[in-house]
Give the backbone structure.
Amino acid sequence: MPIEIPEVVIERLPVYARALADLEAQGREVVSSQELGEKLGVTPAQIRKDLSYFGRFGKQGRGYNVRRLSEHLRHILGLDRTWDMVLIGVGPLGQAILHYGGFAPQGFRVVEAFDASPAVIGRTIGGIVVRDVRDLKQRLAERKVDIGIVAVPAAVAQEVIDTLVECGIKAILNYAPIAAQVPPGVHIRRVDPVLELQSMTYYLKSQDGAAK
Amino acid sequence: MPIEIPEVVIERLPVYARALADLEAQGREVVSSQELGEKLGVTPAQIRKDLSYFGRFGKQGRGYNVRRLSEHLRHILGLDRTWDMVLIGVGPLGQAILHYGGFAPQGFRVVEAFDASPAVIGRTIGGIVVRDVRDLKQRLAERKVDIGIVAVPAAVAQEVIDTLVECGIKAILNYAPIAAQVPPGVHIRRVDPVLELQSMTYYLKSQDGAAK
């Protein structure tokens, strides 16, 4: 039985992995926790603590081997394989997700899509045939997928998430603007543009002030 | 002249502000940096250091006053007012953004939308009349907006971002899957569902392993 690693540590690892991939692309061989910390804005102690859960990667005072740490993190995170996703909700947002070019290069692919509206059921969008959401349970019993993407209106998002959980889905990406509930053992992340906006208004506000 | 606060510190403040708003809604009056740290998965030292840029909020050993810190952070971040946004790209993703219910309750509103396609120019979507992107510069010269949202295909995203910068926009939310470049003084954030997915596959991978 492996030791339990805090979820917040796991959440930071993809950011480390991306930074390391950038360094690797630049031809860098070694990086210190200090430099990685400055790049990412976390304390070197936090980085060392986060990575210590997975073994000993660096030698005191000599930094991390970029390629080895990068490969190891990608393996730990399961980024060295392909993941199949089911999309629920093929309205404007869902259609945008089916056309999104950012998933495939990173090993994520939508393989099933469902909606409740006769206007889209049966249509092929982004190469995927949209199915009736009433057939969701039966279809997922036949075909195993790894991740659910929820792109339905806020009012029905929790209900859809409950259904995905019943189908055995253990990882959900939620685009609906609600803080959804899932049982223990199921992981959920929210795509939250508002947090991104809120981290920029500080600067706009300062400029407004300066202009007065 | 105020001291320069690292951008990474500013990026963490909305997360603190949201956690404090949650605590406030639960009727909590005081919170320690330890508890806030555990809730958010950052070290208490990091929280104390981040907040120390903005003054002295807590008394040693007595924690932070939740309401006061919450209000102060909202004021610092400029979350106590409304921000006007211009949307570029009214394809499937842009239309979803115009219908997104998560912006308005947080004080963000799209007031202008532009596209290059005759199929959407002139249409009213989510209460906004879509204009010809060729009129973007002239329109933004007449009407000041605070934030630009980019929802165009990856291939033209950098060009659109450059145009927004020329128009004087200082904050950009980029939905296109590219790491765009902006000059100093312009802030950009990317809505990046891949990072969210990558923080969940660790668990799926572990389960796969356990099932073997």
